[in-house]
Specification:
Order of helices and strands: EHEHEHE
Shape: globular
Strand order of the largest sheet: 3-2-1-4
Distance between the termini: 41 Å
Radius of gyration: 13 Å
Largest sheet: 4 strands, parallel
Number of strands: 4
Length: 88
């Protein structure tokens, strides 16, 4: 009898086409995804397990979202690529 492990989530900042392969890679590692972007219709937002509507350059908005999301999701990492969002 195994111990139930909570789902593990990686947060991908930016929801464009370049992030869709990152979602696929995360899933291949057994991770679920949180994706943030201001556009709910962005390609990676449509693929996300948990889409979060916040502008990718809104650091304060991301901090507020993180404070809320960490209560419900086991966030194990944050990832950005293909966008200039390192500060976020």
């Amino acid at each position: 009898m195994g111990v139930d492990m909570p789902d593990r989530y990686v947060w991908i900042v930016c929801g464009g086409w370049l992030q869709v392969p990152a979602i696929e890679a995360a899933r291949s590692l057994g991770l679920k995804t949180i994706v943030s972007d201001r556009d709910i219709n962005a390609p990676a937002m449509r693929e996300a397990d948990v889409p979060v509507i916040v502008d990718i350059y809104d650091v304060a908005g991301h901090l507020r979202a993180a404070d809320t999301l960490r209560r419900d999701y086991n966030i194990v990492g944050v990832f950005c690529e293909g966008s200039d969002t390192e500060v976020t």
